[in-house]
Amino acid sequence: MRSLFHKTIGFCLLGLAVVSCQDKEDPNYQYMPDMYESVGYETYGEYEVFQNGQEAKLPVEETVPRGWLPYEYQDTPQGAADAKANLKNPLAYTMDNHAEGKQLYTIYCAVCHGDKGDGKGILVEREKILGVPSYDDAGRAITEGSVYHVMYYGINNMGSYASQTSTEERWQIDHYVMSLKDKLEGKPEREFEEAGAQENLLPSRADANIYDDADDVESGQSNEKNQTEIQE
Ligand code: HEC
Questions:
Q1: Distance CA 67, CA 88 (A)
Q2: pLDDT tens readout for residues 120-153
C-alpha cells in the first residue's frame, strides 16, 4: 500500500517534471512528424525521382493548353499585313460579346485610347504617353485582323495583351474596338447577331476548369454506380 502511494507520488512528480519543460515559444515534441513536415517538392526544383530531373513538367508535345490556341501569324511586317488582310473575328457579334468587350476595353485600353477610341485617354491627356492614334485614323485603316494582331504582339509603345487576356477575350475587345471605329466614322451601328455555333470554335476560360469536367465525366458516373450498389 505504502509503495503504491510512493509510486503515485513519483509518477506525479515525473509528470510534472516533463510538463514543466514545455516552452510555449518553441515547437513542442512531434510524434510521427509526417503530418508536420511536408514531403512536397519545391516548384521548379531539381529531383532525381522525376524523369527529366525537374519538378516542373513540360507540356506533352503537340498539345495546347485549354483556353489557348496557337496564333499562326508571325510578329513581322509581313505577318501584320497578312493578319490585317485575312484574319477575321470568329466570335458572333452578339450583345453579350460586345458588352464583355466593352468592359475589357475599359480595363485594358481606355487609359491610352480613351473611352471613345479617339486616342485621348487619361494618360494622353496628362501627357504620359504620346502618339496614341484614333481608331478612325485613315492612314492606319485598322481591321478586325490588325486589331487582334496588335493586341497579340503589341506595337512600339503599346505592349502585348497576350498574357493578360484569353483568345476569346481579345476577340471580344476586337468587336468593341471595331464598333468604336464605326462610331468615330459616323457609320450606323452594326446590328447584333444571334449567338451562333461559331462561338464554340474557341475554348473559353470556363472550359479550362478541369475539375468541372472531371466531375461530370468520372465521379458523377461512379457516384451513381456506388449509390445503386448500396441500394441493392
Ligand atoms: C500604354 C498605352 C496603350 C494602351 C494601354 C493600349 N494602347 Fe493601343 N496603342 C498605343 C500606342 C502608343 C499606339 C501607336 C503605336 C505605334 O504605331 O507606334 C497604339 C496603337 C494601337 C492600334 C493601331 C495599330 C495599327 O495597326 O496601327 C490599335 C488597333 C490599338 N492600339 C488597340 C489597342 C487595344 C485593343 C488595347 C487594349 C487591349 C490597347 N490598344 C491598349 C498605346 C496603348
A1: 19
A2: 999 999 999 999 999 999 999 999 999 999 999 9
Residue type, 143: T
pLDDT, residue 229, reads 46
134: buried, middle or exposed (CB in 10 Å: 19+, 13-18, 0-12)? middle
Coil, strand, or helix at residue 138? coil
Ligand 1: residue of 155, 165, 166 to mutate (most ligand atoms within 8 A of CB) is 155
What is the pTM for the complete model shown? 0.70
Cα of 141 from ligand 1 centre, angstroms: 13
Contact 125, 226 (CB under 8 A): no
Residues 6+ apart with CB under 8 A from 112: 119, 121, 123, 124, 129, 132, 158
Structural domains present in the chain: 91-198 (1.10.760.10)
159 CA distance to ligand 1 centroid (A)? 8
Q: Is 177 in the pocket of ligand 1 (CB under 6 A)?
A: yes
With a 6 Å cutoff on the Cβ, whether 112 touches ligand 1 is yes
Ligand 1 centroid from CA 75, angstroms: 15
Q: From its phi and psi, is residue 141 left (phi > 0), alpha (psi between -120 and 50) or beta?
A: left
pLDDT tens column, 13-26: 877 766 666 677 77
Give the other-Cβ count within 10 Å of 114's Cβ: 20
How much is the pLDDT for 225? 43
pLDDT score for 12: 76
* Mean model confidence pLDDT for the chain: 83
